[in-house]
Write a structure and sequence with these properties.
The structure is a homopentamer. Chain A has 9 helices and 7 strands. By secondary structure, chain A is α+β, with helices and mostly antiparallel strands. In chain A, a hairpin with a 3-residue loop joins β6 and β7. The first copy, chain A, is rod-shaped. Chains D and E meet through α6, α7, α8 and α9 of D and α5 and α7 of E.
Chain lengths: 353, 353, 353, 353, 353
Amino acid sequence: MKLYNKHSKKAGLPPGTLVHVGEKHVEQVRIALMDYDEKNVNEKTNVTVEECLPFKSLPTVTWINVSGIHDIRVIEGFGKAFNIHPLVQENIVHAGQRPKMEDMEDYLYIVLKLITPGKNEEVFEMEQVSLIIGANYVISFQEKEGDVFHSIRERIKSGKGRIRKSGSDYLAYTLVDSVVDNYFVVLEGMGEKIEDLQEEVLGNPDPSNLNVIQNTKRQMILLRKSVWPLREAISGLRRSESPLIGDAVGPYLGDIYDHTIQVIETIEMLRDTASSVLDIYLSSLSNKMNEVMKVLTIMASIFIPLTFIAGVYGMNFKFMPELEWKWGYPVVWIVIITVSVLMIIGFRRRKWL
Amino acid sequence: MKLYNKHSKKAGLPPGTLVHVGEKHVEQVRIALMDYDEKNVNEKTNVTVEECLPFKSLPTVTWINVSGIHDIRVIEGFGKAFNIHPLVQENIVHAGQRPKMEDMEDYLYIVLKLITPGKNEEVFEMEQVSLIIGANYVISFQEKEGDVFHSIRERIKSGKGRIRKSGSDYLAYTLVDSVVDNYFVVLEGMGEKIEDLQEEVLGNPDPSNLNVIQNTKRQMILLRKSVWPLREAISGLRRSESPLIGDAVGPYLGDIYDHTIQVIETIEMLRDTASSVLDIYLSSLSNKMNEVMKVLTIMASIFIPLTFIAGVYGMNFKFMPELEWKWGYPVVWIVIITVSVLMIIGFRRRKWL
Amino acid sequence: MKLYNKHSKKAGLPPGTLVHVGEKHVEQVRIALMDYDEKNVNEKTNVTVEECLPFKSLPTVTWINVSGIHDIRVIEGFGKAFNIHPLVQENIVHAGQRPKMEDMEDYLYIVLKLITPGKNEEVFEMEQVSLIIGANYVISFQEKEGDVFHSIRERIKSGKGRIRKSGSDYLAYTLVDSVVDNYFVVLEGMGEKIEDLQEEVLGNPDPSNLNVIQNTKRQMILLRKSVWPLREAISGLRRSESPLIGDAVGPYLGDIYDHTIQVIETIEMLRDTASSVLDIYLSSLSNKMNEVMKVLTIMASIFIPLTFIAGVYGMNFKFMPELEWKWGYPVVWIVIITVSVLMIIGFRRRKWL
Amino acid sequence: MKLYNKHSKKAGLPPGTLVHVGEKHVEQVRIALMDYDEKNVNEKTNVTVEECLPFKSLPTVTWINVSGIHDIRVIEGFGKAFNIHPLVQENIVHAGQRPKMEDMEDYLYIVLKLITPGKNEEVFEMEQVSLIIGANYVISFQEKEGDVFHSIRERIKSGKGRIRKSGSDYLAYTLVDSVVDNYFVVLEGMGEKIEDLQEEVLGNPDPSNLNVIQNTKRQMILLRKSVWPLREAISGLRRSESPLIGDAVGPYLGDIYDHTIQVIETIEMLRDTASSVLDIYLSSLSNKMNEVMKVLTIMASIFIPLTFIAGVYGMNFKFMPELEWKWGYPVVWIVIITVSVLMIIGFRRRKWL
Amino acid sequence: MKLYNKHSKKAGLPPGTLVHVGEKHVEQVRIALMDYDEKNVNEKTNVTVEECLPFKSLPTVTWINVSGIHDIRVIEGFGKAFNIHPLVQENIVHAGQRPKMEDMEDYLYIVLKLITPGKNEEVFEMEQVSLIIGANYVISFQEKEGDVFHSIRERIKSGKGRIRKSGSDYLAYTLVDSVVDNYFVVLEGMGEKIEDLQEEVLGNPDPSNLNVIQNTKRQMILLRKSVWPLREAISGLRRSESPLIGDAVGPYLGDIYDHTIQVIETIEMLRDTASSVLDIYLSSLSNKMNEVMKVLTIMASIFIPLTFIAGVYGMNFKFMPELEWKWGYPVVWIVIITVSVLMIIGFRRRKWL
């Protein structure tokens, strides 16, 4: 997971130039359309930009979902059809945006980062979702085809809840809400991972742990980078005086706002935990070193003096009366055993054994 | 103690769906009702939602306490009877809310976290308390049956203090006040624990201490997470222009506000202390290592040279004049003793002994 | 020195109940009264609440100083006589307040923490001082009898300076000023202590230093906790539009405000210094360890090879030509001396010796 | 790369004195001029100040680019011709300015720091760019001749994009935009470098790494120092009510503003990463030490006891029955082997081997 | 360099009492006077307060410079003559003020800290400079006679620049500007010192470095303490609506404001650098320890096994067949050499050699 997007790719190009930045996640851009009011639902998949156009003027709510942002022509098509500002188009195709909300009068433009649990070793995958919220339509741009919005589609079809009775603002709210909910899924997964790591590090610190810790910290930074501005964006939506956002949606936006704050708090807590795992790791290292040193000191302290005693009676002086004594050898053994026992008692007292 | 609630359980569900999130602490939801004015008190336990309804229109103050939030039908019953917004109902049954105050015009909605000393190894237990403050009624929702509000019940019955002469706003104040007071109880317990730990760590650092330190830090983070927004909520109540909060309650709210600030300061101080205990732990480790090393160095430095001397006269050269000397052996002993005494004096000078 | 006051003592009691919290520092509450204008001074000691009452309506400035706050009846007496709000009375007897200023219209209520140099091992003692500032009277409540306000009493009697020509607001200012001045006295004492500690730690780090460092840090936290809100309180007094504070006192309040900021800066600086003493302590430990290790390494590196050489010629092989040589033994000594000299030169080069 | 510019050079001089501060990067100041409207482009290189003057009053957009700021006379010439305030002139020639935007009514003055990838070991080079934005002209001052603005020149000549249709405000925007884009180029290079370093440090910590880490941190500080005020400057431009900045440029300025925030976030992230590389470095050191200690402990613990055993049977006591036994020697070997095997098993259990 | 001034000296004194706090730097207070307009300059040295008085009412600009603040009577003389508030007088003689600007209507009062490079081991000296800015006069109070304002005096005499054409506000500006410029001189000196230290610490960490690092940090704290409020003071001057500060001085004040921000940034950077030098110091210690340990481990690991081998053949068993072999001794040598070579290869592989 890269810490930054390749902005440098654009250095030197005139502003407003559409350049896809990011990985290409799908081969073919797919456009799905859903048009509904309280009574009817009309769903179409694999439509073209031109097929979307007539729905714009209908009084019903129209949701156009575009999977894949690498095809510049498609985005330009929508840009023309829905009268989207060139800079907004540029932002849609450039996957390195910060989450934000911009009131363009005719429509609101929201950029979000959708977080989904990663597939292989990646902890999570991040995808840019752009929303264009018009008077009676919402266009959502995703980097790849995903089933994140699937349950919303089902809810519309089944007509459960308020969604079919509400306008495009409520639809936009449910889309943002489902994006925010996904943060909780990923964060809970990471929380469990970090707690496991903490256990492991306490018992058996290993240099590889260090890498995992730093990785987690970095991912937290990445997540934080995408949630902090999200909070501002939602707060902007709430306070916005745009006629596109009705009063009834207010409390719901307040609810997502609370959720983003909880996401932020959880991220901060996980960062803190990752830091404390690092502390545990380092002090576990010290502990281990202490233990190694104790073993060395005990072995050396017991045997070096004994070796000295043996060395003394290995000397070849002619006149060494002890060597002649009958009980010399057993006495030396007694001395040796006494010294070692005293040593061991001493170490026991210092709680080294 | 989990660092977060299972928000992910709700991912994909339409907003406004009542889903109980949290552990189920009681089998049966119990509703207790207390209706009073300056002259009379009427107490009922184990009532149903329907039995509560008539009290709503009485001019007396009615306090309905609901223990247990897992029974969706009960909450929905209250929601219907007291005209509570679906999102508020959702918040009541979802135990993972941040403390907050919301002015819903007809009533105020307050979420709090009640902290009680934990039973087994847990340092504290956290429980969500929701308050609905109406014109002449207060409904309190607790996760479990507890005796936290018991003394308030007694005070109402005995008619001591201002409570019987005041309205529902004063009742709400006393409920919040008793929640805040419980923070002090828990924090004082933790403060003593940390101070004991500091003593222990200084004398005898042990890897298990590390776990306790990190645990304490984490609990402080959890507490902080629940008190910071509480402060905002109380500050919101104070500045609120809702007619539901009378002027006479103002100074009392100012008093709780001061208390929450003191709680926050205490938490920060305990976090700081936990951090400094970690510092002490780490430097105690270093100290111990130093001591181990000194023992090793002293033993090795004294005996290795002596062993060398003994080794020299253990050599089997034919022509080693010293070996023939009569006083060779005693002289070697004198050398050995001199060397060791000099060594010991040297170590004394360096204050290693 | 405890990090917090026993708030838990009050959990469950109705608000507005007067409960003395804190240690009881004096046996008998003593009330001293001073009544003055530009011409006359009237001083009385050991008066009762009733004796104070008539002075309230005189146009002269009356200063009532109450030493001891544990006698609930005395405080209640003043409360009744001077019409003090029950919550203010509760704050006066509860020694765990944060410094604050409250405008109660008829009077201003100020809580301060008086810091005096400690007697035994305590670095300082903290005492709560409450001031009730009325139109022409000031009541000061102290926890114990002290001579902090003695010099003010002398100044009033002697008629030096502006005090006799000014009203109760100027009297209140001088009281607060003398409280703030005491912070400097205590902080300078601590500053010298920390600098001594730094010297000591650099030369000879000892685990007991650690305790002193942590203690200092904790005391700084305690002081900071009492000065930060003091600054706000004084700033509140300055900006206050209460008619009780005349314009002429404005610059004087500005002066104390500056002093509180200097107190805060000094506290932060001492905290910083305490932290850096900890850094020095830890690196001194590392330095000592390095030295210990060097001694061990030098001793071992020199004598272990020599012992090996001696060991070789201690072997009992039948055919060891060197043993027969006449110059074998001296040659071995030459080798031994050469090896040690080379070693010593090597260690010198690495600057270990 | 110096952390500061030589401000001291100016101490004692009267303000408004033009003194070139900074290195002299080019020998000869070169002035290039470009004059264009939607239809025509007129480009001149190596012009003099006098030659620029007539273009000031033309309705077309004029861009004057000055490479080299060390020639005081040239700057004074422009100052006179374009009526530039002496302090602004002083800022232009003094390369130690903080980025800022100043509204001088007749013109806007912007100072920027242009970052370009460094040539040799330097990670980047920093150059001060000053812009004077008038009604229909922009004067840009660079410290050295560079090709940073080359692509803009090409865009003007080719007439692509909006630039030829827009005024001097849009030209100024593109200049600032290209400066900001260069930050991304440099930061991406540094990001890759730090990630390589992290790998290296984990495997094989080396004191030289330390230097690189500290260097990176310092460069981040330098960059941050130049970007934070840039953000403020651009924000100032956006909110500016100067008639020199048209409404149409607003969204474009918003876009650069977003970019500066992304630059800041990337810098913070890289600082964080550099810090964590330091953590990894330190714990890698500890790890290595642990390993060294283990080797020593294993070697010493196995062979010191064995040497003792050998020493015992090297003693010369007359009565040592074992020495006479036929199987004495083999038994000793068996003991030696058994002891070593037990030791090795013990170390294996502790996971030291 | 003390971290604080002796405020305690004043505890207990009535406010407004003039007490000189600080060291006495000059024996004799010297007053120099300069009176000028565009045409004439009148300079007088060693004047008395009385001699200054007539200049007050002249329309020309009068600059009175007072060197030495310990003589209370002189300050009181000026206080009376120029109608200076008693608290301002108190501040002038008390050298422990925080920099500030106060609008006293008739005059502005500015306190600054003048930093000059220290003479002996002190890195810098700090001196309090007070300015009284009246309608057509400026009085500057310095703690000691210095040549800091010398160049301004020269500039006035020579009539260069704007100074002779401008009023007392511009004179005050040049005084403040020269004080701020001196910060750069001191900071550049410290910057070079820290960079040298970093080099030294990397190569050869020494406990004395630690002291230098902590000293530098402390000096940075002291400087920061004097610059932060300076920034506020200058910002206050800029925004001040006092008629004493003319519009023409505005951009010049903006310029000093920028300089104070640069001073602050440089201080923060130097603090950061000092911290990173501490990091380098600590890790250099670890590195050295690692090296010491490696030497020990290599020596011990090679020679301890060899000594064991020699010990084995030093045993005195009767039946040790190897001892009888003719090639026993050479074979042992071969074994010894092989073992050492293998060891050395092993250590090479681990990159310890």
